[in-house]
Write a structure and sequence with these properties.
The complex is a heterodimer of chains A (325) and B (359).
Chain A: E1 2-5, H1 6-20, E2 24-28, H2 44-48, E3 53-55, H3 60-72, E4 76-80, H4 91-98, H5 101-104, E5 114-119, H6 134-138, E6 144-146, H7 151-162, E7 168-173, E8 181-184, E9 197-200, E10 205-209, H8 213-226, E11 231-235, E12 238-240, H9 244-254, E13 257-264, H10 269-280, E14 290-294, H11 304-307, H12 311-324
Parallel strand pairs in A: 2-3, 2-4, 4-5, 5-7, 6-7, 10-11, 10-13, 13-14
Antiparallel strand pairs in A: 1-8, 6-12, 9-11
Helix pairs in contact in A: 1-7, 3-4, 8-12
Chain B: H1 21-46, H2 60-69, E1 75-77, H3 83-88, H4 93-101, H5 133-148, E2 154-159, H6 166-178, E3 182-188, E4 191-192, E5 195-196, H7 209-213, E6 217-221, H8 225-240, E7 246-251, H9 270-277, H10 281-291, H11 297-319, H12 339-353
Parallel strand pairs in B: 1-2, 2-3, 3-7, 6-7
Antiparallel strand pairs in B: 4-5
Helix pairs in contact in B: 1-2, 1-10, 1-11, 2-8, 4-11, 5-6
Classes of the chains: A alpha/beta (325), B alpha/beta (359).
The structure holds thiamine diphosphate and magnesium ion (MG).
Chain lengths: 325, 359
């Protein structure tokens, strides 16, 4: 075990994978000499050289398209997109190509690329350095989507992503890159996909969150405990595949659900989760499902703090579900 | 990392009228103002009085030379590093500062990060962060100009890094095919964050990319404001005559960090910076003005004092403006709020009232 921040854990995960397998390489803008604008790839170029830590021209379409080619030929590329907000020039490569290679070739061409990108608000980044658009990728069949919320999960989910057989969109909550340190297992630590983590056990209401909203949900649960409401916080860890068993078991126990995400509400991941609960846990529900999310506007600069869900909003919503039934 | 600087191209034509003493002086004043604002804003950012800043020091010659060669009706499609253009178009520093702060008088309503602004009444289209996106848009606006038969052009601004973007290539191609009245003004400041110009292309110049798209590309010394002015003027004249687009590569150097989030010492050598500083666009113009007898050191000192006082005054005024009102979040997503958004706004206002959301 070593204590480190979330971004250091990403770095250690990359390091571990590269050390263990010469086919693993990293490519992206400013990932080499600079070590990444958030320092996620710091030191890798020194250790593994510029052939495996590739500073690319400024083209996300180029980054992901070439990563796909490398993967088809047998390498294991980990592409970095500097901010999730800048992934769209590569959207065609991700949605039309990466997600569909295996299917359209009848299974002949698996295409395993990991695309890492910092996502989310909380750094005063305005419209284009703050968005949480995980739902686009969840909506695309053929992509797995992982979002860690702790240093240990950052390393463990990243190593699982790199060793997966399918393409993975790996979203890193940049707001908590350095906010907390945590113990991270040394070596080849892997957290399996599709295994949600119960952060705080509770009986009265289930709060589902992922990424940077996990600490917010946890803070809300602590506040609720002081009022005699026992909230359970579940960190989904991977949105695709989703650990439905843990989600359903939690709601069957508590009878109430609050879904939290930074992304806009309409057609956000919370809509899918709510639909699953309505379909499969309807008879356990004692109150309507509540969503605490970003608003259906673009992400603002000056008003970031009122846009992002905070613990007070989460607690308010949880309290309302408890009062209503 | 030594960035090879290409020799400037021969001028496209020599028809441009020489600059008057008056013109040069007004370039100089704006360049000095631009540099002083940069220096002040970097310190405001360090003090936490603005959240972020993108400096343009070193690029003033290219920006002012280009801006001055355009006409007010010409549409500008900028990136985020174009403060010189904004100042030349007549946008007061105070207005820019309201945007940097994101206060209640910010025309962008506090929506964007500092340096991402636009002013419709000045034909200055609002900038975004994604690299290159403005380039195709400028070509589209030029196609609209063709349709309207207007005697104007569009000018789009981007960096060396942006020449690797999809939009650069699509925009150049459309402009060539449709012979649009577009000026592609590339400020090659040698770096795209930590990546040197050579990492973007194996071509010996960026300008030569125009050839493949069927129109001229020229390299100009961006530290020489006169040369930039002449190059843009001829490109503009060609465009208005219906002869199509031009790519201009202005060679400059980014003196400061990419932005206040960046530390250039991690990736580039100080000698390179010092070498470029010896050809500083402001110093070069100042020497010209001094040697021609149009300017004196005393006048220069007075100008600096005046500019600094003007900046200090703007800061005081802008910092007194209240923050942007929370409910403005629900304006401008659509022309009229959808029923869902209306409901969200009402819920939001209740949460503010109950103190759950604290602006
Ligand atoms: C599509 C996209 N990818 C990545 C980024 C992150 N980014 C911001 S500025 C920049 C470098 C731009 O370099 P250049 O085009 O030379 O312009 P300069 O900043 O030097 O003026 C990068 C990679 C972005 N804004 N947009
Ligand atoms: Mg540049």
């Amino acid at each position: 075990m070593t204590e480190m921040t979330l971004v250091q854990a990403v770095n250690r995960g990359l390091h571990e994978a590269m050390k263990g397998d010469p086919d693993v390489l990293v490519l992206g803008e400013d990932v080499g000499v600079d070590g990444g604008v958030f320092r996620a790839t710091e030191g890798l170029i020194k250790e593994f050289g510029p052939d495996r830590v590739i500073d690319t021209p400024l083209s996300e379409c180029g980054i992901v398209g070439t990563a796909i080619g490398m993967a088809l030929y047998g390498l294991k590329p980990v592409a970095e997109i500097q901010f999730l907000d800048f992934i769209y020039p590569a959207f065609d490569q991700i949605v039309s190509e990466l997600a569909k290679f295996r299917f359209r070739s009848g299974g002949q061409y698996p295409c395993h690329v990991v695309v890492r990108a910092p996502y989310g608000g909380g750094i005063k980044g305005g419209l284009y350095h703050s968005q949480s658009t995980e739902a686009y990728f969840c909506h695309t069949a053929g992509l797995k989507v992982a979002i860690p919320s702790t240093p240990a999960d950052a390393k463990g989910l990243l190593l699982s992503a790199i060793h997966d057989e399918d393409p993975v969109i790996f979203l890193e909550p940049k707001r908590i890159y350095r906010a907390v340190s945590g113990e991270v297992p040394d070596g080849d630590h892997r957290v399996p996909f599709g295994s949600a983590r119960t952060v705080v056990p509770g009986d009265d209401v289930s709060i589902f969150a992922y990424g940077a909203m996990v600490p917010v949900a946890t803070e809300a649960a602590e506040a609720l405990r002081g009022e005699g409401i026992s909230a359970e916080v579940v960190d989904l860890r991977t949105l695709v595949p989703l650990d439905e068993a843990t989600v359903l078991a939690s709601v069957e126990k508590t009878g109430r659900a609050v879904v939290v995400h930074e992304a806009a509400r309409f057609c956000g991941f919370g809509a899918e989760l709510s639909a699953i609960l309505a379909e499969k846990a309807f008879y356990s529900l004692k109150a309507p499902i509540a969503r605490v999310t970003g608003f259906d506007t673009p992400f603002p600069y000056a008003l970031e703090n009122v846009y992002l869900p905070n613990a007070a909003r989460v607690a308010h919503a949880a309290r309302a579900t408890v009062r209503s039934g | 990392m030594a960035n090879a600087v290409s020799p400037p191209s021969a001028p496209l034509d020599s028809g441009a009228t020489p600059l008057s003493a008056e013109q040069r002086l007004s370039f100089y004043r704006t360049m000095v103002l631009s540099r002083a604002i940069d220096e002040r804003c970097l310190s405001l950012q360090r003090q936490g009085r603005i959240g972020f800043y993108v400096p343009a020091s070193g690029q003033e010659g290219a920006q002012i030379g280009c801006a001055a060669a355009l006409e007010p009706d010409d549409w500008i499609f900028p990136a985020y590093r174009e403060i010189g253009l904004a100042l030349w178009r007549g946008i007061p520093f105070r207005t820019l500062l309201d945007q940097f702060i994101g206060n209640a008088e910010d025309i962008m309503k506090g929506r964007q990060m500092p340096n991402h602004y636009g002013f419709r009444d000045k034909n200055f289209v609002v900038a975004s962060s994604p690299i290159g996106t403005q380039i195709t848009q400028a070509v589209g606006a030029a196609m609209a100009i063709q349709r309207r038969k207007a005697a104007t052009v569009t000018a789009t601004f981007f960096g060396d890094g942006a020449t690797s973007s999809n939009d650069f290539h699509a925009g150049m191609n459309f402009a060539g095919v449709f012979r649009t009245p577009t000026i592609f003004f590339c400020q090659n400041n040698q770096w795209a964050i930590s990546l040197p110009r050579e990492r973007q292309t194996r071509s010996s110049t960026l300008a030569q990319k125009a050839e493949a798209y069927g129109f001229p590309g020229v390299v100009v010394d961006g530290t020489d404001v006169d040369a930039v002015y002449r190059a843009v003027r001829s490109a503009r004249e060609r465009a208005v005559r219906g002869e199509g687009p031009t790519l201009i590569e202005a060679q400059v150097y980014r003196y400061g960090p990419h932005s206040t989030s960046d530390d250039p010492r991690r990736y580039r050598a100080d000698e390179e910076l010092q070498a470029w500083k010896r050809r500083d666009p402001i110093l070069r113009l100042k020497e010209l003005l001094l040697s021609s007898g149009q300017w004196t050191e005393a006048k220069d000192a007075a100008l600096l004092d005046e500019v600094r006082a003007q900046i200090a005054q703007a800061i005081e005024a802008a910092e007194a403006v209240p923050p942007v009102a929370p409910a403005t979040l629900f304006e401008d997503t659509f022309a009229r709020r959808t029923p869902q958004l209306e409901e969200e706004k009402a819920a939001f206002e209740r949460l503010v009232q109950e103190g759950v959301i604290r602006p």
